[in-house]
Each structure stands twice: as C-alpha cells, then as structure tokens.
Backbone:
C-alpha cells in the first residue's frame, strides 16, 4: 500500500500574501531576463516594473543572489516538469527509446526558453555563487534522475556494473563513490561514466543549437539531433551485457 504524503500545514493569510508577492517578483524577473538576457538582471529594474522600491523587494529577496538562486531553481524545476510530463506520457511509437523522447523535450524547452536556458548554462553571472547543496543543486539532481532512469531503464545493477567502458582511474572511481545517491552516486562506476558521457553528448547538442551554432543546418537541426541521440543510446546499450 503506498505511503500517503503528510498534508502540509495551512499557510496563514500573511504567508499566502508573501508567497504571492514573491511569485510576482519572480515572474517579473523572468520577463526582464527574457527581454534583456540574464547578464542584464537588475533588481532596480524588476522593482520598477512592479511599481515598488528596491527596499521593498529586499523584504522578499534580501539580495541579488537570493533572487538569482530562486530563478535558477524555478527554471530547473520547470524544465524537469516538462521532462517528467513527457516521460509519463503514453508512447506514440513503443519502438522509440524513451530517452530519445525525453531528450527531445529537453531540446524543445531550451529552444522555447533560450534566455532561461542561458541563465542555467550560459556564461555564469558575475560574482554569483550558488549555495552548496541548496535549491539549485536539488533541482538539477531531480532533472538528472529523469535522464538516468530513462537511459538505464530495464537494466539490473549487475548489468550496469559489467558495462564495457575504458578503464577508470582509481582516483576517478573514488570521486564517483563520494557522490550522493541523488547525483548518480547509486550507479556502479562504469554506469556513472556512461551517464556522464551521455549527458555531455545530449546537452552539448542542445547548447550548440540554442546558442545559434548549428543554424547553418536550418530545419534539419531536429533531424540531426534525433539521429545523433539515437546512435548514442544504441552505442551505450550495446556496452551493457545482456541479462
């Protein structure tokens, strides 16, 4: 029998108003980034667009870094929501690898939200440092878990441990062993290496397209992406022995 989640305590009227105001500020900041890019994020401009002072905005976000952290975490969560919805949807073609479908959703989100994608993966904002093990870390791990599940769906831990990969150095294996379970730390070293390689391949293709480096391909960018990801999946699965 599934365990029921505890019902969260009801918020007071003051807490609900504060949460609504914080969401309005985040929406305005996202709109500002969409118009001017992440590097031009200005608390003063965001406050002005809402008809409030910067001092009033500080009641909800004490500094720029707090607002940036909330924006990044929300972007990752929105992206993960899109990926999860795709993963949960009924397959149009059962023969199509689910990772290929989820990867397509990742590409679609990046193309539809280039400025927010740039906030996540573009040039780091000057002087910004994400809080260690904070909301941005938790949000990106949630997204990574979706890709990990779809890449290795149906394989046992023994199969993943026996994957055919180039030998890993002892220091690298020790580093992988230190990762928490939510960050691929629950994978055997060989599988973790395959996952990191797959992530770099998939993400790199999307970055090239979103940042305009594959525009010379025109309408064929989607075809190149699907073909490349399909070949990557087939190569990785060939490296994992049969049960």
Residues:
């Amino acid at each position: 029998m599934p365990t029921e989640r505890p019902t969260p305590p009801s918020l007071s009227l003051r807490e609900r108003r504060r949460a609504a105001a914080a969401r309005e500020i985040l929406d305005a900041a996202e709109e500002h980034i969409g118009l001017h890019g992440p590097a031009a994020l200005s608390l003063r401009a965001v406050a002005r667009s809402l008809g409030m002072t910067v001092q009033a905005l500080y009641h909800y976000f004490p500094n720029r870094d707090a607002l940036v952290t909330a924006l990044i975490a929300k972007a990752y969560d929105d992206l993960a929501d899109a990926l999860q919805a795709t993963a949960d949807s009924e397959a149009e073609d059962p023969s199509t690898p689910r990772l290929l479908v989820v990867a397509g959703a990742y590409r679609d989100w990046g193309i539809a939200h280039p400025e927010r994608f740039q906030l996540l993966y573009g040039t780091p904002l000057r002087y910004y440092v994400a809080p260690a093990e904070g909301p941005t870390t938790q949000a990106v791990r949630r997204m990574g878990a979706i890709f990990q599940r779809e890449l290795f769906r149906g394989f046992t831990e023994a199969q993943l441990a026996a994957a055919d990969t180039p030998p890993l150095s002892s220091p690298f294996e020790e580093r992988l062993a230190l990762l928490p379970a939510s960050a691929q730390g629950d994978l055997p070293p060989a599988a973790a290496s395959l996952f990191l390689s797959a992530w770099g391949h998939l993400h790199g293709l999307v970055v090239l397209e979103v940042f305009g480096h594959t525009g010379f391909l025109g309408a064929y960018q989607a075809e190149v992406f699907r073909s490349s990801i399909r070949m990557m999946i087939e190569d990785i699965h060939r490296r994992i022995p049969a049960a």
